[in-house]
Amino acid sequence: MASLAVDADLVWDLHCDDEALMHLFLIPEHWPQAADFAADLGCRAVLLAEDSGGNSFDETFSTPWTRLAKHYPQHPIPAACLAATVELRGFADVDDATAARDAQALFHSLQRFGVVAGDPPPPPTLRCQATRLDATDSVRAPATGVLAYTVQLGDDVEAGDVIAWIVDPTAVPEQARLPVTTRASGLVLSRRTQRYARPGMPIAKVVGEDALPHRQGDYLLED
Predict the structure, then answer these.
(1) How far is CA 115 from CA 8, 86, 157, 186, in A?
(2) Is the domain defined by 133-215 classed in CATH 2.40.50.100?
(3) Residues of the chain with pLDDT under 70
């Protein structure tokens, strides 16, 4: 795939999450250039990072240009390849109507970028603003047990809110339920399909606006 995409001006890596709302991953230099793309898709979040640390396919084509620009500031090197990871909701979001809407959105975006001939309609209203990836809390399970969520996708939560309980069916009732809280205030973007948690397992993403101290490091996708 990389050999096919290496000389492209536009790269979209289409994915899906466990349970999730539509969202994009981009480098900061491609926002707001990709705003109409996010609007076409109906994205509920756009997450920006110079280097997410996960060896992402899209960053293979976008980050070399930004690194060259920083290394040679005397030269006007553009962020040449607009590359994005597109998270097409979750594993179970598969039906003809959803596929038709997403295909139409992708086609309209290809028209806007001049890849496909034709005049697309005006883009829909953008449903979110881009935020830094290090402002998104990747909430982790603190213990082993049955995962019982208290929030739905799209809910707005505050830092410190309980978003789930870890239930240990072998414990005495008074000790069986362990709360799981979020450190971000914002939108519940994703959850786990698997309802049995183990210690340290990511169980949700909550999209905030302010960088989180614990989200500093080399691997922002799940840390």
Answers:
(1) 11, 18, 40, 35
(2) yes
(3) 217-219, 222-223
